[in-house]
UniProtKB/TrEMBL annotation, chains A, B:
InterPro entries: SUF_FeS_clus_asmbl_reg, Tscrpt_reg_Rrf2, WH-like_DNA-bd_sf, WH_DNA-bd_sf. Transmembrane segments: none annotated. It comes from Muricoccus vinaceus. Pfam families: Rrf2 (PF02082). This is SUF system Fe-S cluster assembly regulator. Gene3D superfamilies: Winged helix-like DNA-binding domain superfamily/Winged helix DNA-binding domain (1.10.10.10). It comes from the Bacteria.
């Protein structure tokens, strides 16, 4: 399966959540907001901090926030931070253990351009593209209706049954 | 890990091998040529036949061959045949079992363009791009050296130690 690891998937969810509201977010609050178990939230935040995608502030009033705008975080950076380099086959990153075909492989050493094409596709998407706007953002961008111009809406009586 | 399944990986290897030499190839011969275990070869060929990427001919002189030129088989078709639709997250193809975040997910329903971008990148690559030329092809395209023009190469005696 060409699938993200669970941790990479959760990392996207947590970054999207951090991008929805400014300020510091604690792991318990993020766990409540996203439905991801708190130990998993803590683990993902630790890895994202090491990759300089989120900033941690210690202390009683501490928490985590994005290290850069959500629109400046390519999906590829998140996947690489959580799962390592994008490599569709195990042989590319040196983890050849268990490949039965290595000795005679007719496609050996030809995967780099494919991995690069996938990486490019994923770097063209940012977490901002993936994140749904928060309720407060939706309100901020909600259309402002003009004041009523006097046309009354006629109330239609509901027939009693 | 954003990684092909072992079976998809082997399918690419087998298709590349089938593309190296015309004619019918038996599963035992393909197993010997690629180093992939014969039961695995048989399993992959069965799936590739169902996906109309290879043709099977029964009988004592039977075997398998490509159903179309190797340059007309996009990598995406092979991955989809072996692993199902390209979906980076489990929720996209309905397999949400085990996702802790589904209820509050801030990126829910936003993955389709990402999956489509990855599919497009993988459909731009064909098995022909991945396959190394066979020895016979290398010979066919090898430069033809002009006949020697009489300049003799002087043999340098190797000093005995």
């Amino acid at each position: 399966m060409l699938r993200l690891s669970k941790l990479a998937d959760y990392a996207v969810v947590l970054l999207a959540r951090l991008g929805q509201e400014d300020g510091l977010h604690t792991a318990p609050a993020l766990a409540t907001a996203t439905g991801i178990a708190e130990p998993t939230v803590a683990k993902v935040l630790r890895i994202l901090s090491q990759a300089c995608l989120v900033e941690a502030q210690r202390g009683a009033r501490g928490g985590h926030r994005l290290a850069k705008p959500i629109s400046a975080i390519p999906l590829s950076d998140v996947i690489i931070a959580m799962d390592g380099p994008i490599a569709l086959t195990a042989c590319v990153d040196g983890a050849t253990g268990g490949c039965e075909a290595e000795g005679h492989c007719p496609v050996r050493g030809r995967w780099d351009p494919v991995n690069e094409a996938v990486r490019a596709a994923l770097s063209a998407v940012t977490i901002s593209d993936l994140a749904r706007p928060s309720c407060s953002e939706l309100h901020r961008h909600a259309p402002v209706f003009p004041p009523a111009t006097g046309a009354a809406v006629k109330a239609v009586p509901v027939a009693a049954e």
